[in-house]
Amino acid sequence: MAIVEMEDISKFYRTGGQKFAVLDHISLEVRQGEFVAIQGPSGSGKSTLMNIMGCLDQADGGTYTLDGKKVSAMSDNQLADMRNRKIGFVFQSYNLLPGLSAFDNVELPLIYQGKRSSERRKASLEMLEAVGLSAHLRHKPSELSGGQQQRVAIARALATAPSILLADEPTGALDSRNGAEVMSLLAKLHANGMTIILITHDHQVAARAERVIYIRDGTIA
Fold first, then answer.
1. Which candidate, 83, 34, 32, places its Cα nearest to that of 58?
2. Strand residue runs (E) in 67-156
3. For residue 178, which of 201, 199, 154 has the smallest C-alpha distance?
4. Rounded to whole angstroms, how far apart are CA atoms 5 and 151?
5. Element (H or E) spanning 151, and its range?
6. CA distance 214 to 201
């Protein structure tokens, strides 16, 4: 079953009176439970594609269906709801709130979802245990290594039980050891049935996925 379906997706930017295609009729699908890497050099269009996949932006042409719902014609509020319910985000820069503990950072999206305190606590503790950080619940980001911060970010992304995990250069700010630990964690999550879409420019990182989609100059190579 395809959880992500994109057909003829195009995205244009205008500058100096000219129109440039950042994405040029992209068609792809990701099936439930797959671990897919989207690989390409800087400027290839992979970040724009990620933004559309993550309901952070909309295409100028084509059709995007996420978990059976047509995203292409959704309003901003509907897109926000899809992001909150269907997608877990992991970014290169972690995006943790520095004044909050690891536990509080993981709990935050559950507060936005209106979950009860007992539900939030249970889910947050389970996710931090799943990423191997149950001993660091009260540590703030500044008290954690880069690899540990990224694992907190992964726990936060998983806390809402999303349909897909969208990871944008998740090892880009890490040294090789911490990067390998994060990739091993993603592989473990995939083995447990998680659908993962990984955005990367790194051949070695992309090789950890079960399928690689190469993008160059806005098209699938």
1. 83
2. 69-70, 87-91
3. 154
4. 28
5. helix 146-159
6. 10
Amino acid at 112: Y
Residue type, 6: M
Q: Provide CB contacts within 8 A for 201, sequence distance 6+.
A: 39, 40, 41, 42, 46, 169
Which tens digits make up the pLDDT trace of 81-113?
Answer: 899 889 999 998 999 999 999 999 999 999 988
- Taking a C-beta distance cutoff of 8 angstroms, is the pair 199, 50 a contact? yes
Would you write out the chain's pLDDT as a tens digit for each of its 221 residues?
Answer: 899 999 999 999 888 888 889 999 999 999 999 999 999 998 899 999 999 999 999 999 999 999 999 998 889 999 998 998 899 999 989 999 999 999 999 999 999 888 999 999 999 999 999 999 999 999 999 999 999 999 999 999 999 999 999 999 999 989 999 999 999 999 999 999 999 999 999 999 999 999 999 999 999 98
Structure-block tokens of residue 128:
């931090």
Element (H, E) at 11: strand 2-15
Backbone angles phi, psi at 72, to 5 degrees: -55, -35
- Enter the CATH code of domain 2-220: 3.40.50.300
Domain boundaries along the sequence of the chain = 2-220
User: At a CB cut-off of 8 Å and minimum separation 6, what does 138 contact?
Assistant: 101, 102, 103
Cβ contact 46:25 at 8 Å: no
Give the separation between CA 131 and CA 15, rounded to whole angstroms: 44
